[in-house]
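ok trying again, last paste got cut off:
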Amino acid sequence: MRTPLLSICIATYNRASYIGETLDSIIPQLDDDVEILVVDGASTDDTETVVRNFVRNESRMRYVRLPAKGGVDQDYDKSIELAHGEFCWLFTDDDLLRPGAVSAVKVAITEGYGLIVVNAEVRDRGLAVVLVDQQIAIEDNKIYAPDEMEALFIDTLTYLSFIGAVVIRRKIWLSRERKAYLGTEFVHVGVIFQKPLHEPVIVIAEPYISIRYGNGQWKPRHFDIWMFKWPALVWSFDHISVQAKRCIVLKEPWRRLINLILQRGRGAYTTQLYQKHFSALPAATLWKISAWWISRLPVKILAYLLYQYGRLVRANALLLYDLYPKNIK
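nice, full thing came through this time. structure:
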């Protein structure tokens, strides 16, 4: 069998209820230039059974079960090490590929791009309601030259917190530092932005991915990730300007009480997290008292009030869904 052009690399853990639908959306788009590789981080549910049923009927698909849970960063890195393709699509285990996705990516590969960013729509957890039509709001494909790294950073980084958008030349990934970014939850962002790329990048405007929003396995770690890990990663890139980083996230977003209020409304900020992060912090007394009281506000009432205010000011649809998902139809 010849070397495939593209490996669709899926790192998974305990997704028996979702990965079958994901694979059903991909397999009809396969040809002899494309393989699927599923790397399982030692799932304890029926994920292995579900995936092996697909492997039995699909010669272009492989399944590798790891001996222990390594985490999302380690498992995606391992999937690229094991992949056979010239390019790797780091796809997610609960989202869907829309028809034409693989063909569009293959065209971009043949046009000479080292990194391909595939746009997405966002749907509710049941995939019934479209929350966002396009994550990157562009009408046509957008190309970035190697010397336009900062523009790429500003335009795409918020979306690129979603790993499923990334299609990258395997040699680029393997040639770059990865170990330093394991455990950040966003190893792909570290690989892409640690230093300038030497090949052009294309962002595909058509939303070829349907994201199942609100289904992330990191939800219990939401506060730590978005208030600490993500900002630390974004601000770690020395060759990116301070102004560009501020376009994405503040260096210490938790210092703004409104961010703590929003996190509390989502149910992500608790008194336990106050004790963990702020109780011993050398901060102003008024700020600490406020942060403590916010951690004790009744979540349901706060979420409802924030939702109503968000409707008035036309807040981001995903924020409204986070606060009051039952009201999104």
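cool. The chain has two domains: 6-212, 219-297. DSSP finds 14 helices and ten strands in the chain.
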